[in-house]
Amino acid sequence: MEYEQRETLLVILGAGASHDCLPEPLGKKTVRVQRLEPLPLADVLPPLTKELADGRPLQNELLAEWPDAGPVIDYLRRGLKATGADGSPATTLERALGEYQDGVERVPERRRHLLTTRFYLRDLLWRCTDYMKSASLTGGITNYLTLGSDVLDWCAGGDRCAVFVDFNYDLLLEDAFSRLWGFDALSMKSYLAHDRITLLKPHGSVQWHWPVLGSERTAYGYDPRLLARKSINAALTATIEQDQLFTLRFPTHDWGYSSQVTLPLLIPAIALPIERKPELIWPKEQQERLSSLQGMVSRVLIVGWRAAEPEFLQLIRPLVRVDAKWLVVTGGDSSRAQREAAEVIENLRSALQLPRMDTITYDKGFRTLLIDEKQSGSLGELGRLLR
After folding, report:
1. CB 89: neighbour CB atoms within 10 A?
2. At what angle do helices 109-132 and 70-81 cross, to 10 degrees?
3. Which of 93, 159, 249, 327 would be 385's cystine partner, CB 3.0–4.6 Å?
4. 118: containing domain
5. pLDDT tens digits for range 153-211
6. pLDDT lower than 70: segments of the chain
7. pTM
8. What's the CA gap between 13 and 35, in Å, rounded?
9. 375, 341 contact by CB (below 8 A)
10. Is residue 350 located within the same domain as residue 235?
């Protein structure tokens, strides 16, 4: 049976999923990774979107490495500290970043700041990935591995497939899939190669990079900061080839290539979280795979995603059946998690124009969802969605 003819589970993962990726609470544990500074767990968990500009040690270390991102991060930090008359935050990170970008024509230097911020975000989420895979934590065993295994089992129970849509830049889901079936994050083909499970990343990924049009080909065997500065300088006066994507593997401290390897100057292909101007950064083959599922999606699992992506919601509107079952997972403070779940459902209803939604909400977080599932067998919320 053709892939697009199978009953389909759509899994959508936002920042809340990676933030809650560990299978057990580990408190104030110090995380150790070779060649990286030991840091408290709270400082190296993949951040929520609103935390991308926090002044945590890892973030401040990266700001020292990428000083031209400083004006952006300073603007965000000051904006996020402001409060309204009722004491609530006066803005969001996405709105503040959009305001900063809106000033590019008036203050051209801001373009350099924003380009450098892509490198800052790339290294932040790459290092968070490294820390989450540390032997001092769980050795890379995450909730993504558990979920991937459960979904693989479900797919094997009939003519079924699953499409994972991951809005996170990190490589935690790729790592889980590599443990399950040898997924290769260096190969774009690997994202679509499995017979039953597809991985799509609409906001890009830390190992994806765009070439700068007409830039020199440069050996990648020396100082990565120098190469990044050359890439940014070239991108300020040339076009970034956004229809091409290179995948690079390198540790967070060096590029991992010998001086014999040459590549064009590159810019991280990750979407800046900007309100009103969301970017979708993925190969056209990934968007085409999603579009091929028209009317096939019978189940939808949402974890830690706010459904605030109008362009993406329009893409999935023709895919989801009217009788589809939904499970929306939020976490954190109970009252806030309940409000977030209600917001997600309202965003979905409005964008997808569904007459009704068979919806289960779970407000205890990703980790607890899977713990409850294992304790209750097939009677947990995830089991109810998949049965």
Report:
1. 14
2. 80
3. 327
4. 30-132
5. 999 998 999 999 999 999 999 999 999 998 999 999 999 999 999 999 999 999 999 99
6. 1-5, 214-223, 250-263, 277-278, 333, 376-379
7. 0.93
8. 30
9. no
10. no
